[in-house]
Prior knowledge:
The structure holds three protein chains of three kinds.
Chain A: H1 2-33, H2 40-56, H3 62-83, H4 93-115, E1 131-134, E2 137-140, H5 141-163, H6 165-175, H7 177-182, H8 187-213, H9 219-222, H10 224-234, H11 239-259, H12 267-278
Antiparallel strand pairs in A: 1-2
Helix pairs in contact in A: 1-5, 1-8, 1-10, 1-11, 2-3, 2-4, 2-8, 3-8, 5-6, 6-8, 10-11, 10-12, 11-12
Chain B: H1 2-5, H2 11-19, H3 23-31, H4 34-38, H5 43-66, H6 74-89, H7 95-117, H8 122-142, H9 144-147, H10 172-193, H11 196-206, H12 210-213, H13 218-244, H14 254-267, H15 273-292, H16 297-311, H17 315-328
Helix pairs in contact in B: 5-10, 5-13, 5-14, 5-15, 6-7, 6-13, 7-13, 10-13, 11-13, 14-15, 14-17, 15-16, 15-17
Chain C: H1 2-18, E1 27-33, H2 40-57, E2 60-61, E3 64-72, H3 78-90, E4 96-99, H4 103-116, E5 119-122, E6 137-139, H5 144-156, E7 163-169, H6 172-187, E8 191-198, H7 206-215, E9 219-223, H8 229-239, E10 248-252, H9 258-264, E11 272-275, H10 284-297, H11 303-321, H12 328-335, E12 339-342, E13 345-349, E14 356-368, E15 371-383, H13 386-391
Parallel strand pairs in C: 1-3, 1-4, 4-5, 5-6, 7-8, 7-9, 9-10, 10-11
Antiparallel strand pairs in C: 2-3, 11-14, 12-13, 13-14, 14-15
Helix pairs in contact in C: 2-11, 3-4, 5-6, 8-9, 11-12
Amino acid sequence: MIGPVIGVLFDGFAYGMLLFLLSVGLSVTLGMMNFVNLAHCAFAMLGAYVTVFLMNDLKWPFLATLPFAFLAAAFVSVLLERTLYRRLYRASDLDQVLLTIGLAFVSVAVAAYIFGTVLQPVQMPPYLRGSFNVMGVNFAVYRLFLVAVALAITLILVLTLEYTRFGAQVRAAVDNQRMARGLGINVDGAFAVTFALGSGLAGLGGALAIEIVGLDPSFAFIYLVYVLIVVSVGGLGSIGGSFLAASLIGISDVAGKYYVPELGAFLIYLVMILLLMWRPAGLFGRR
Amino acid sequence: MSLTTDPVSGPYQYLKAQSRWRVLEVAFWLCTLLPYFLFPNYLVLASQIAITALFALSLDLILGYAGIVSLGHAAFFGLGAYAAGILSKHGWGEPITGLIVGGVIAALVGYASSFIISRFRHLTLIMITLGLGLLLHEAANSAHFLTGGADGLQGVKIWKIFGLYGFDLWGYTAYTYSLIVLFLGFLLARRITNSPFGLALRGIRENAVRMPAIGAPSHAHIRKIYTISAAMAGVAGALLAQTTETVALEVLSFQRSADTLVMLVLGGAGMLYGGIVGSAIFMIARDQFSGINPQYWYFWIGLLLIVVVMVLPNGVLGGLKKLFTTWRGPS
Amino acid sequence: MRKLFVSLGSLAAAALVAAPASAQQPIKIGLIMPYSGQFADAATQMDNAIKLYVKQKGDTVAGRKVEFIRKDTGGIAPDVAKRLAQELIVRDNVDLLAGFVLTPNALAAGDVSEQAKKFMVVMNAATSIITTKSQYMVRTSLTTPQVNESLGTWAATKGGVKKVYTMVSDFGPGLDAEGAFQRGFKEAGGEVIGQVKMPVANPDFSAFVQRAKDLNPESIYIWVPGGAQPPALGKALAERGIDPKKTRVMGQGEVTDDAALKSMGDVALGIITAFHYDPNHNSAMNKDFVKSYNEAYGRNPDFFSIGGWDGMHVIYEALKKTSGKTDGQTLVDAAKGMKWESPRGPISIDPQTRDIVQNVYIRRVEKVDGKIVNVEFDKVENVKDPVKARMK
């Protein structure tokens, strides 16, 4: 009987890692820069469309498209950051909401215009398909791949932000902008790079999500709620927090659906509310 | 704000000055009668704008005045809508009492949830309101026997208002009815915000920690305004259910909460007229854009939002007010 | 033979009135669909077919020009759909309403059709009761029970399945489909060994598939809304090692539509579905239809397209019969009992219920010339909506 339990735990964890990949970028921008970026999933959608375009129209292999999904989202986000976002760094949260919702609206229309409203079909390469069986437990190859990517990204992010000069500059700029400027840190530059990083990760997450959740222009809105849940439960700006929150939510969602399917639709929200009531600042939140 | 610029007058005089009706306000309400003469073919849309405006106004009471950002306010809108709809389905289609029942039920649930709401702030608060709203949405989907589930509530039949005015295809009754209820709701909101209680709420918005320190029971205040706001949202929902004789799960949806928040912010939060102006701009723009271009109108509405933020920060009314003050020079 | 007379009759009627009516006002058709939002692709496909029909058959009928006014509901929004229907009638003076992808919207607009006495053509929304909302309404798509009850009966008899596990989305259409399938299946002697209802917004199916697998059922019946979910569910089945060639997997046609098949690939082989239309349906008429559709839009038509296409056919033929008269009663009388050959096969409008009568095809996913397609291998002929048939 232990077989299904391990299978469910693994599936939940892999699902959590998908949520983590989609949301870690927002945790970075919202937590570090205090910017409410509701267009986050639009960047994820951009990355996903880049991957689909490269795979289906130019016949690139899936893995080769991933860096470009990251770069495209990062590049577009920097353009927008320089032209629009930066003017609102000091504006109210509500104005930021209005701007980024507006951007998300535009992205939906542009995606529908360029790629059509159709659900984009993708075929993963054979080595990422199927599953194998270890002692009666099924492990899907693609889910293992997701887990591996998520772990690698967590490691890279934590190391970059904690142990590099750039990471120290960003943290300084977030804690006290004026002081950081006084010390000669290029705050504008640090913010632009952070923003590009956050959006690029969204683009990568989007590209990796297609296989599990599909892709059409409504992508920019459908997964926004899940992303916000992970970020708020994890605690703003905490990568470890997002990781833990995503795993917890993924596992409880899948396990809940397995053992009490009657509660299937309610679980993710119940878990979120209970976790937030227990720790209002999120699991690893500072504020 | 003028509160700080004029040290001579005390709060009492300030409130008295605020509650005086200005010419612009009277003109505004006279303008709401224009659709009868200028756009008699748009009265159905006008009625839905009035309903959305009432809903946005209810959101403004908690967001603009007490600083509670909610992404789940449609929960109360939906409760009101379902209450009025279910009542009429089971044989009581009288509209006025239906409105009251919708408001009361939303208020009860609002009061109950306000004990949770008043304990949290910021992102946590947003996410808890969102979560509660989505839970209610799922519950309504599951309670098929009561709500009709995803197909919507069937058999909603509303009687004539006072036994005289039935709901017509042109929307005369719907608009008149919605406009009157909106105006009454507005009077209530205006009375509240220009009272000492309203000032205390603004204190909470500005500094939630200091208010208890000066002896204001901020949790009690939040519970009170949240309940009032829920009731108003419930009335708005009941209005929609009655004027359209339809109720579907969509009244509880996240999208309705989010759209209304966008409309309020677009118009300008915290100044009573913001929600009304915002919903009028948003819904008229959506109607026109989607009429011209049903597939890609999102592009134009998105652009509208971006331009407004860039040109008129703090919403259309906030931005205009600022432009006006700059134009007149410092007072 | 009767078909021939009907079409001859309508031809004659059209010829009689064509000349004197040419200078008349245009006929305005109000289309209400979710052009934007989550269901935008359904509207796109339906609208494509409508445009193609007008392109092929001309934009004048019974001597009057046909004009369209398109309105977007943005998704499930009955209040908006109702307002749009009201405005179309009051402000734009449309002669008839058409479109309607989603059930709640169709139900709400049905009230307006009844009140204003306007002809209304439902081109997709598939809940059984919709057509009872207005006596001026006809439907050219399908009803959920029509397809799923047929599948249930077929599975327990010809299909040779004795036991089934059902997995459906937990909302109106899913529950309708589950009820219809189980009814047909049980009445034909089958046994339902377990069932699960899955949330409507559900990106990950692994938990539900694992539940099904624990019971090791002989067959699984699934119903999820079209779009992103069918491929996700198909892949989850494959990941858990459920092979449709060994455990029979059955469902309604959306589960294996073009997009779903493309992203599922070989995993889909062996899935059995029941549906009223597939672009691979073998008839000369359908081949022409699919060919010209591909030329115009670069993709295959789907069931939304066929609903739109036949909806236009009803509108055009009814207008020919009434010589361009557009009041609701005349038009709906002209549409009642109409019978014609569609790209999906022979279909008709039931004169009692104003609902569609059509063949339900049983298909299996197979590889033909390297392409993965639905292959029809059996059919249930002239199926009426079973729910309304029982009401009488």
